[in-house]
Amino acid sequence: MAIPSFEPHDGALLIDKPPGPTSHDVVDRVRRRLKVKKVGHCGALDPNATGLLVLVLGKATRLSEKVMATDKTYEGTLKLGETTDSYDADGRIVATRPVPPVTVERLNELAEEFTGDLLQPPPMVSAAKVGGTPLYKLARKGMEVERKPRLVHVYQFRFSDCRPPLADFLIKCSKGTYVRSIVHELGEKLGCGAHLAALRRTEVGPFKVEEATPLKEAAEMPPSELMGRIIPALEVVRLMGDYLKA
Fold it and tell me: Which of 30, 79, 167, 190 has its CA at 20 to 30 Å from residue 242's CA atom?
């Protein structure tokens, strides 16, 4: 079987996204910087989330779904005592409650309840669709509709620090997991409520944020140098194969 021919831009580019721009903004900036027509991302980050955004370019866009289906690792911070309508810091505060005495040990006891298989309905403020309409559009109209739960898997959920009302954690989970929903539910179990204050993605399948180029740096470097950061399509295939075998 003949090996397809590839151009220098056919591959994956790892970007470390700062807070602010959307994932689409990042795709657009790279497309314009490299003058490549086909650029996509392998799993969006919310605007205020940071960290690893895997972009695929040219013929490597065919690999998007395979990369998107891999497991993800995040580092996050939750804030106790405040519940928001979106379950994160971008939302409107809908309730405030006193924070009880809490320790890392207590948080990790609760975190154990959120490991393994979970049936998780998407939040009302999300891009998931019901009847073809994104849920966030219905939420803006004050509507709340029934959402079909999705099966997700949490491999690891551990807290490393607690300085009330804030607490830091690491979570490794399957595709489609809403970390902010887990944070919201944990807050309810604790009795004071909580929302996701910050989130940083550190791993997507075999790719790590340490290997990524910060967006500001990518936007300022010469296109030829940025092109040199692209992981060739065949190397992406090899990395994915090794990851799936592990």
Answer: 30
